Amino acid sequence: MPPLIVLPTARQALRAELESIKMDNVDTRLSSDREFQKLQLKKQDLERSLEEQEDRMAMAFERMKKAETYVAECQVELRKIREENSRLDRLNVSVVFVFLWCWRQPQAGEP
Prior knowledge:
Helices cover 92% and strands 0% of the residues. The protein is mainly α. The mean pLDDT is 84.
């Protein structure tokens, strides 16, 4: 074959190969862009999920603090009630003792 015929054929083959490489590069870039977008969306979802978990944790912490405060108030009230019950028990023992003492005492005119 004469060299003049081979040159345009080789040139066309090289152009076709370059186009093929460009298309592969474009496909790869598009695929990479899609993967990047998927990763970005996943990252956003994870960040949103993390924020929700942090909010839940903060609310749970607040509920725990309120419960601790309520427990402390109940303990104070219970201590007051126990003190009052002890005072009433002592008073009750005193009343019973006085009653028994008076009941055993001879009445005026009795032997």
